[in-house]
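[Meeting: bench + compute handoff]

Bench side (C.D.) handed over the final construct sequence. Compute side (W.E.) agreed to return the predicted structure before the next meeting so the bench team could plan truncations. Sequence as handed over:
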Amino acid sequence: MKAKLGTLLIMASDRPYRAKPSLRAPADDEPEATRITSLSSLESELRARRQQHAYVVVLQGSNVGEMFKIEGPETVIGRAMTVQVRLNDDGISRRHCRVLQIGGQVIIEDLGSANGTLVNGEMVQHQALNDGDKIRLGATTMLKFTYQDKLDETFQQQMYDAALRDGLTRTYNKKFFLDRLETEFSYSKRHRTMLSLVMFDVDHFKRINDTYGHLAGDAVLVLLARTAQATVRQEDVLARYGGEEFAIICRGTPLLNAGVFAERLRMAVEQTSFEYGGVRLPVNISVGVTALPEVNVNSPVELIAHCDEALYEAKRSGRNRVCMRGI
């Protein structure tokens, strides 16, 4: 006996329209039945698949643009050498605060800092963080808490490098160097700590370009930067100041120690084999060194001028040597 099929009657004008009976099987029997879900559910699933992690991004301060991944149950932020996120800005304590990951939440906790920890403008002792929260530490540092995936992290790092690094040598660029030197200079003056500046350039670099070509000159600068980077401490700032000239900020380093470091750098360059197109290139550097408080200056520009004078003295006295100013 055939089952009786219902019909749907839709009135159009004064003539009825009889729809054809539906012969579709119930949804449970359809292997390709359409599923309807909310946009928020899709976004949640997408975020889960992207494996997002917690980060803090420096919005303001000497490390502006840098991104730090929050890993493990505890991440300490401060000026000390031993912390996971090291920020050198004025007003930040050695162990300023810490970020904890507990039960799926991310919590920030002040560690008795001198100037406190503020989240979205409010002083806090400990507080759960939400995506987009702004964290102020000290007088000049602003962080943003955010969740990012690996693609976001890579993009952020590329943007950071493009803004702050020299395109050829991958050292910091002149703008970053000047900004950082101003911060370090102010800190050194205020707290009466030591600060050394080292500047060096390639002897007879124009002769290398004229004899072997500009591509050879570029190759020299790349290897020179790599050699210098292997010599400096992690907390030092190596930058390309311009052309074949480089500068290094040495925080907390007295003048004589900076002079010893400069001589070690000069020797490392002298012992490095610079080659291009199978030809050995003659490469040496002259180095100038100065420091606070040995020189009495009132601005970073004056400190650079003293270091430049020491560098030119090294060139005037025969090149391939270190000269110090301030003793």
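W.E. noted at the follow-up: The chain has seven helices and 20 strands. C.D. will use this when planning the next construct.
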